[in-house]
Each structure stands twice: as C-alpha cells, then as structure tokens.
C-alpha cells in the first residue's frame, strides 16, 4: 500500500495516478542489501549512460541528414560549424563505447556473483535482451556517418543474413531495400537507430520491475531474510551511485576531451565508396570477441550460427550452471574458471582485431572452443562436483570470520 | 468442439490472425526495393574500349560489375581445370556467352567485399583472377572460387549482347 503524502495536492494526485508512490518505492524506500560493493554501481551507470546517449543523440539528429550524398558532410558540419557540435558528437560516439564497457562489467558482475540464478532468471533474460538491442542500435548508428567503415561494416553484417539457406538473399535485399547498401538502407537504419533506444528504455523498465520484485543479489549471494540486512535505497545507494557517476564522468571526460578518436577507426573519416573495400575491415571494439567467433569457423552458415549462439547461450545459463551456491566467494574452483573465461573473452577480442590468418586463426579457434566449453561442459559438471565453502546464514554471520558483528 | 462459444472464439480469433497477417504484408513489402530502385535494374555498357587482357569495373544496381576481356591464355587456364578441383563446380563454358568476355558481379560471395584484381597493379590471388582482401578468398580467371571462405563463384548477372560491342546487363 502506498503511504500517504503530507502535501494535499500530491496526495490528491497520487490517489488518482500513483506515480509518486511508485517512484518513492523504487528510488527512496526500496529495501536494498546493505553489503553491496562497488560492482553494484554499474547498473545505475548503464542507466545514466543510456540517458546521455538519448540526449546527445537527440541533438545530433537536429543537424544530421540521412542521405548518402549529405550524411558524411553533415557529420563534418556538426564537427566544425554547429555550436559545441564536436562535443556532442564525441559524447555520443565515446558514450557508445562507455555504455558497452559498463554493460560488459555489469554482466561480468552477474556471472561472478551468480546473479542469473533462481529467482532472477527473467531479470537476467531482460538484461540479455537489452544487450542484444544495444548491439543492434550500435551497429545501426555506426552506419550513419557514412564513412568507409560504416559502409563496409554494414555490408559485411547484412551479408551475414545471406547465410540463411534458400531465402537468405531475398532477406538481404529486403533489409537493404535494394541490391546493395544505398540510400534506402541508410534511411531505414537511421529510422531504427532512433527507435531502438526507446525500446531499450522500455526493456530497462521491465528489468527494474523484475529487479524490485526479486530484490538485488549481493556479494555473498544468499537470500536476505532479516529486515536489518537491508537499508533504504535513499540516501544510502543514491549517494553511492552519485559518487560512482562522478568517478565515471572523469573517465568519460578523459576520453571525450583527450582521446575522442582512440576507440574508433580512422578509416571512417574517409567517405563511403561502394567500389573500394578497405584492406582490413574491423568492427568497433565491443563487437570484436563475437566477430572473432564468426571468423574462427571456416563455413559461412556455421560461423554465423556460432556467433549468434555465443550470445543466445546466455539465456540458458541459469540451467547450465548446476551449482546451488550463487556467489564466487564460496566457489573456489568456479572462481578460477571465471577468471579464465574473462581472460579467454579478452583474447577473443584481441584476435578479432587481427587478420584471420596463421596463428591468429588457430588462437581464435581455441578460444571459441573454450568459450562454448565453459558454458556447455565446465559449468554443468562443476556444479555437481565442486566442494563449496560454508555459506553464511545471513550477512552478520560469516563462518569464515571469527568475530562476527553483533547487531 | 465443446460448445458454440468456444467454436465462435476459435473461428473469430483465427480470422483475426489471418487478417492481421495480411495487414502486416504492406508494411513488410514497403521495405523491399522501390520502383525507382528496380527501374535501374538494367543498363547498357559499351565494350569497344576494353583492350584484350584488361578489365573494367562498371556500376550496376549499386554494385560493381567486372567486365574482363580475357586473353587466350586466361581462357585456356579457366577451361583446363578439372571440375573436381572446384569448390563450386561449374564449367567455364557455362559462365560466359562469348569466351573472351567474362562478366561477373564483383562482390565476394563470402560477406560482400570487393575483390582486388581489376587494376594491373592489384594482387590477383593464387589463381590469376581476383583476391578478396577481407577474409582471403581467391578467384580464378573465370571468377570461380578456388580458395578461402567464400562458398560460391562470383555471380554472373543476367546479360545479353545487343551487338558486337555492346551488352545489356539486367
């Protein structure tokens, strides 16, 4: 039941539209585990980045022209002529990288502390859906400046659909609205690039509803049943999240002001040329691990399926991991496999940026095999045989610490 | 069927589903190539200024088309290969109308990059045809894939000779 508001106008309005009590429940009163560490900051960081991306994107859209003859020049117009256009564009392009960095850490935190396990499976699914939508949005957005990498990246990615048996080529033509990447393609990519962020916002709301239904996981990964194990979201976590924003904005600022192009590819400052392919096509860094999986497999269709599978497998992760214990803190062996998995993923990203020949190809094949082995073999078996450490009954009783806090 | 009510429910919702499927179609089809894009579907090209042993790139449907005026040696190379050695077996005779003119869509069948080999200075790959720099596919002097991840030969567009030195593609 919503608590009454003292202010009569608020109370009157809230009785008819419970927006204030819902907000108060979510942002002020929401009981949150008292032992969350800084890895739990990345959810709110992802949220603020989404807001920054939508606001900067809105401004960019006022100056950008989605036409093959004008798109590249309009981006340069934003960079040179529009007041603070350079700042807003760099915020948007660096922001995309920051968004992925934050979300990768957010996902890794979920993997480490077992946040995907019952009863948080749906919360986890919604997160993966957001991740997939982010991929689509980032890919579409990267096409818009109409540079060489935009054009050829779009060509390679849309051609992935041609791997579908029988109707593949028709689907590609339908996606492109023509027989090659051209003006109809650019227009529809712009349209979808504008739409998808709002769909992401919608799924983020579902993500938060699911979160508030089941409550946050916490570093020791147990269900918190005592009232005193939780503290209100405000002021404890609002202030902690704001502190996180401050640290993040410093890093964001360093990139925006001093290294704005370090995360992109210089070829994208060459206007798109449909008749010349750049010698080495690489996607943005956040796609590289999955691009490496695509290229590791010498058959077109299988490569595409493996790349898709590498993300879709996350949906069944709650059932692949058979261990009852959530947090890595009490899973000494899984903890090591977790770090091997992270290392393997980074290596995949690194080979994804190289030409797929010789030993790079061999490394990418080993890493791809390991990626799937981790989920399909290691996790199910480990859950059955691993000897976990004693799990505390509640936050205050840690069997590993002799002197417990008495509250 | 249990009763009248469930029968009506089933038939009505089936009709609604069929109706919605039809209603969605215009939206889906609107994303297919529009009339002006399709109108650019066929185009004529003059061959008279392409010397023997050289090739030219023309643009058709937004894609490059390679027109290669082949030498006797190149024709022989293409015709003397055993079909069993090919990844996508096809006779050279089936890929040309006139043996000296090879006309292919210059788009790698792997992921759509444009292979090198049109200019004299380009790398032509291990089989004296084209080489795709993106993921390393090699094509021979008939545009057939010989090595690398590409699954198929370079596509042959629909074309015909209007007269001795003129073709119509599309």
Structure description:
The complex is a heterodimer of chains A (407) and B (170). Chain A is an all-alpha fold and 407 residues long. Chain A folds into two domains: 30-277, Cytochrome Bc1 Complex, Chain C, CATH 1.20.810.10; 282-392, Orthogonal Bundle (Helix Hairpins). Chain A is 63% helix and 1% strand. Chain A contains 15 helices and two strands. Chain A has helices spanning 8-16, 19-29, 42-61, 71-80, 85-112, 121-143, 148-159, 168-176, 183-214, 233-258, 288-296, 300-312, 317-320, 332-352, 358-385; strands at 31-33, 230-232. Chain B folds into two domains: 4-32; 36-169, Rieske Iron-sulfur Protein (3-layer Sandwich). In chain B, 23% of the residues lie in helices and 25% in strands. The termini of chain B are far apart. The mean pLDDT of chain B is 87. At the A-B interface, helix 7 and helix 8 of A face loops of B.
Helices and strands in order:
The complex is a heterodimer of chains A (407) and B (170).
Chain A: H1 8-16, H2 19-29, E1 31-33, H3 42-61, H4 71-80, H5 85-112, H6 121-143, H7 148-159, H8 168-176, H9 183-214, E2 230-232, H10 233-258, H11 288-296, H12 300-312, H13 317-320, H14 332-352, H15 358-385
Antiparallel strand pairs in A: 1-2
Chain B: H1 4-29, H2 35-39, E1 43-46, E2 55-60, E3 63-69, H3 72-79, E4 101-105, E5 128-132, E6 137-140, E7 145-147, E8 159-163, E9 166-169
Antiparallel strand pairs in B: 1-9, 2-3, 3-4, 5-6, 6-7, 8-9
